[in-house]
Amino acid sequence: MKSLVMGLGLCATLLSAASPAWAEMPRSSAPADAAVYFIEPADGATVGQTFTVKFGLKGMGVAPAGVDAPQTGHHHVLIDLKQPPAMDQPLPMSDNVRHFGKGQTETELTLPPGKHTLQLLVGDKNHMPLDPPVISKTINVTVE
């Protein structure tokens, strides 16, 4: 139990603003021809509250978070973000930044009725955006 508490304390210290562990975390290079895009839904689509989202990636491979393989990464879906997240630190996990660290290439999203924006961003083994960022164009969906 003591080691668990010490481990949690270390994690809290690493994640605190006073000691940003990510400050020394290098960003992985993106292949020059890498691109991420939505296969589904199409930009401007009207969808139900729960709908399928399929991710496309070209010029590199998909690998789960934690896997250190060259020219690979995993998907993150950015939902209704007004501006992209910081590209020099690990992506936060929130309702607006969804992680697919198991290497998933599709998911089911449930969103409230209304207009929403979706964007894909590829992260490396540590959830860091690649350098340069591999980010899709923003698409718009209307949820009924």
Number of helices: 1
CATH domain topology? Immunoglobulin-like
Radius of gyration: 16 Å
Secondary-structure element string: HEEEEEEEEE
Counted beta strands: 9
Helix content: under 10%
- Output the CATH class name: Mainly Beta
Tally of discrete structural domains: 1
CATH superfamily: Immunoglobulins
Shape verdict:
globular
**Gap from first CA to last CA:** 49 Å
CATH architectural designation: Sandwich
Fraction of residues in β-strands: 35-45%
Mean pLDDT: 87
Major sheet size, sense and barrel closure: 6 strands, mixed
Contiguous runs where pLDDT drops below 50 for at least 5 residues:
1-19
Class inferred from helices and paired strands: mainly beta
What report would you give on this structure?
The protein has 144 residues and is mainly beta. The protein has one domain (25-143): Immunoglobulins (Immunoglobulin-like). It has one helix at residues 2-15, and strands spanning 35-40, 45-47, 50-58, 61-62, 72-79, 97-100, 106-110, 114-123, 139-143. The strands form 2 sheets. Strands 2, 4, 5, 6, 8 and 9 form a 6-stranded mixed sheet that branches. The chain starts with a helix and ends with a strand. This is DUF4399 domain-containing protein. Residues 1-23 form the signal peptide. Keywords: Signal. InterPro entries: DUF4399.
